[in-house]
Amino acid sequence: MDDTTKPGNTYATDTDGTLTALTLNGIEIPMRRDYYRGISIFTVINGQDERVPLAFDGNCFTGSLNQLRVDVSIEMRDKLTVRVTLCALSDFRCDKVFLRLGADCFMERYPSWDAQFFPTFMRCERTHFFGCFVSPLGKYLAVGVPGGGVLSWGLDYNRANYEGEDHPGHRIYTARLDLLTAFDNPKRHPDKCNFLRKGEKKEILLQINAFSDSGEARGFLERETGAVLPELFTAREIGAVNDIAHTVIAPSGAILARGCPFSEYGLHRVIAQKDGNVTEGSVFVRKPYRYYLERAAAATFDYPQKPSTHCETYYGFFSGFLYLKHSRDKGYGSRLTEAFERFLDVLTDKNPLRIKPAALPQRLQNNAALISILVDAYEATGERRYIRYALELAENLFDAQSADGAYRGWGGAAHYTSVIYPAKSLMELYAALPAREFANERQKLYQSFEAAVDNLCQGGEHIGTEGEHTFEDGMITCSALQIALFGLLQADGAKRAYYAAAAQKMLDKHACLEQRLGYDARTKGCTLRFWESMYDVLITQNMLNSPHGWTSWKTYATYYLYLLTGKRRYLEDTVETMSACLQTVDQNGKLHWAFITDPQIETNIFSEKNGSFGLYKANFGECYLPMISDKWKPAENTVCMGYAWPHLGMTAGAFYGGACDNDVHEHFKCLEETLYDRAFLHEENHRYYAYNCTVDGETVSCGNAAELVVCLQRERQIKIAETGKTVLFRKGLQVYKLYEAIHV
Fold it and tell me: Which pLDDT value is given to residue 743?
C-alpha cells in the first residue's frame, strides 16, 4: 500500500481493470462482478454495445476496439482517482461511448439491501458532473468529474419475469456516464459529440470518495469539481422575496434582482457560478392551490375514469369530489355524480356493495381506494348511501386481515397493507362517520387498522409488496404514512411518540430513494420510482418517474410527521415536494402523467397517429410525459384491464383502453388533505418561517386560508390580519380555525 493512502481506503481489480473490491473512509462499497462490472468502457456502434477489452501494461489498463484506444489508470490516496483517456487510432464515429461505474445498486433482499447504494443523485452540467449513491443506512458514495467530459448519464435497469410475463423490473444494476454520444440531451448538458479525429484524445478524471454525512459528500463534490451545489428552497409564491444568492432568471427571461419579490408564475432558472464553473438549478413560483385542484377536477373528464381491474384507472374521482367539496359548483357536481353512478353500476354489484370479480376485488387496494373515494363523495354531496357503500366494502378488508394484523391480498398470499394504504382508507372512513350514530362501526374499524399499523411497526421495511421484491419506495412510504396517521389519532403522548419514531425510522432509511440532494424544483423531494411507465402509459422501458403520482405517499408521511413532531424539516419537505408534484399541471392548465428524470431515453412510446394507436420510436428526457387516457378509452359499460400490452399486440377486447395514468391524481388528493386551505407559521431559533402566508412582526396574514397551523418555541400573542383578532398561542404546535372551510 502506498504510504500516502489514507487508512480505511483499499481497492482491488481484476486483470481487465474492473474494480472487484472498494473501501473508502472505512465504508465498503459493493461492486458488481458480472456484465455490469466497472470501471469499464463500452462503445455503441449501430446500436450494438461492446466492452473495450483492457489489460495491464505496467502503467495502466489499456486496450482498443473499433479504432478507439482506451487507457484507464487508478490511484488510491485520500480518495479514489480514475483517469480515463480515449484516443482515436483513425477517425472514430459512434452512437455512444459510455463508462460503466460498477457500484452495485441491485437491492434484492432484506437485510443485505442496507449495504447497497442507490443512484440517488445524478446531475450533468455543462462544466462538470455530480453524482451521489446513497445507502438505506445513510452512507454516501460521491462521484465528481470536473470539466465537461461527461455529456450525459444513464442507469442500467433490470427486467423481471412474473409467471412467464416480461415486466420492467424493480431493481437497478449500476449507473453509467456518457463520454461520447450522438443523442440530444438537455440544454444544460455539454454539447453532444460522437466523433474523434485520428489522434484526437479525450480525458476524463473521476474523483470518488465515501462519507457518512451528506454535508461531507456535498463538500467533496464541490471541492473536486470546483462548482457550487446551490442550497435552495425551491417552492415560492407570488410576492415572496427573492433571497437567492445566485442569478435568478424568470420565465419571461427577466433577471430578478435579489431582494425583489417574485412577480411571475412558473419555473425560474437559478444560475450559480464559481471560477468559470456553472451550475443550473430552479425554483418554482406556484399559482394558488385552488388552481391546481380545479384543473385536476377538469382532467377527471378530460381523461375519463375507467371501471377496470386497477383502481389507478379511476383515481381522478378523488380530484373531482374534493374540488366539489370546496367549490360547491352545482353544474360540475351534477355531471360528476352522474358519471360516478354509471361507473359504480359497471364496477360493482349492490346489496351489499362488492367489486365485481372481473374487476379483481382480491387486489385489495381496489377495495381500499373505492372506500376512500366513497368517503370523499359523501363529504362532497352528503349522500348517505356512499357511507353505507364504504362500510359494506370495508368488510372485504376485514375478511382479508390475518391474525398478525396484515391485510393480505390474492387469497392471503401477499402482504398488502402497504400496497397503497388500506389502513389509511379505513381511518378516513372512521373520521367521516358521526361518532354517536356509528359507534359500533367505528370501534370495528379502529380495531382493524390498529392491528394493521402495529403489524407495520413490527415489520419495519421487511414487509413485502406487489411485484419484484426490493427496497421499495411505496412499501416504505405507505407504511410510514399509515403509522404516522395512526399516531395522530392518539391522545396519549407516549403513544404518539412511539408511532412518530416508527414512521421517522422508516423515512430516514427511505431518504436514499428521494431527491433530497438536488436543486431542481421539478424534482425536489420527489421519490425515485422507475417501473410504472409500462402500466400507466404503456411504455415498456424503465425510466425514473420523479415525480410520479406515488411520490405523494411520501408527502402524506412528512405532513403527518410535522404535526406529530413539530420539526420544520418535515413541513419544508412537504411544501417542496408538493410544489414539484403540482407542476404536472403546466402553465396552461394541462395535466401530465409524470416527469422523466433520465436525460436521455430512446424507446417506443405508445401514441396515436392518423387515428391508429401503436408504438412509435421516440427520444426524450428531462420532460413531462403526456397522459394517454384522453384518447385511449375502453368501450362503455365494460370492465377493462388496468393496462394493455402493445409490445405483444395485446390491445383489443378487454385490453382496449386500459392504462393507469390517472394515478397522477394522488397529488391532488394529497394537496387537499395537507396544504390546501392551510397556512403555517413556524418558529425556529426565535425566527418565524411562513408558508402559504406572510408575517410582519407579530402579525400574520393568511389570505384565504381556513386554518392557521402554528408551531412556537414559547407562548406568544399573534395578530391575525384577516380577522383583526390577537390570539394567545401556547408553546408547541396547534391548529387555529380562521373560519370553517366549506364542507357538508
Answer: 36
* Residues 214/29, Cβ–Cβ less than 8 Å: no
Q: Are 462 and 526 in contact, with CB atoms under 8 Å apart?
A: no
Query: Residue 165's CB: how many other CB atoms inside 10 A?
Result: 9
- Please state the three-class secondary structure of 330-355 as a single string: HHHHHHHHHHHHHHHHHHEECCCCEE
- Element counts in the chain: helices (H) and strands (E): 14, 39
Can you tell me whether residue 391 is helix, strand or coil?
A: helix
> What local confidence, expressed as pLDDT, does residue 224 receive?
96
Residue that has been written with the C-alpha cell 482517482 in this structure: 81
Report the greatest alpha carbon distance in the chain. Answer: 85
Exposure class string for 466-497: b at 16+ Cβ within 10 A, else e: bbbbbbbbbbbbbbbbbbbbbbebeeeeeebe
Q: Taking the CB of residue 224, how many other CB atoms lie within 10 A of it?
A: 22
- Cα(291)–Cα(307) distance, rounded to whole angstroms? 27
Which segments of 542-627 are extended strands (E)? 592-596, 601-609, 612-620, 623-626
Q: How far apart are CA 692 and CA 705, in angstroms?
A: 8
Residue 180 to residue 295: CA distance in whole angstroms: 42
Residue 357 φ/ψ, nearest 5 degrees: -55, -35
Cell 456502434 belongs to which residue? Answer: 45
pLDDT tens-digit readout, 539-566: 999 999 999 999 999 999 999 999 999 9
User: How many whole angstroms separate alpha carbon 523 and alpha carbon 621?
Assistant: 13
CB 503 within 8 A of CB 442: no
Between the alpha carbon of residue 417 and those of residues 269, 397, 468, 599, the distances in Å are 41, 10, 16, 35
Give the bridge partners for 619, in sequence order: 602
User: Quick check: helix, strand or coil at residue 358?
Assistant: helix
Determine the average pLDDT of the residues in 441-464: 94
Closest CA to 297 of 267, 265, 266, 339: 339
3-state secondary structure (DSSP) of residue 206: strand
Length of the chain: 744
Amino acid at 503: A
Q: Hey, what amino acid is at 407?
A: Y
DSSP-based three-state secondary structure for 395: helix
What's the pLDDT score for residue 24? 97
For the chain, give the mean pLDDT: 95
The helix, strand and coil proportions of the chain, stated in percent and rounded to the nearest 5, come to 30, 30, 40
Q: What residues contact residue 403 under an 8 Å CB cut-off, 6+ apart?
A: none
Tell me the C-alpha distance between 38 and 61, whole Å: 13
Look up residue 374 and give its three cell numbers: 366513497
Edge-to-edge strands, sheet with 80-88: 55-56, 61-65, 68-76, 80-88, 201-211, 140-146, 128-134, 118-125
DSSP structural state of residue 209: E
Q: What's the pTM value of the predicted model, to 2 decimals?
A: 0.96
Q: Which H or E element spans position 63?
A: strand 61-65
Residues 323 and 301: their CA atoms lie apart, in Å, by 13
pLDDT at 173 over 60: yes
The residue whose grid cell reads 437559478 is 270
State the residue for C-alpha cell 415572496: 240
Q: Which of 178, 200, 205, 185 is nearest to 92 (CA)?
A: 200
Do the bridges between strand 201-211 and strand 195-196 make them parallel or antiparallel, or are there none, so unpaired?
A: unpaired
Nearest to 282 by CA among 606, 467, 524: 524
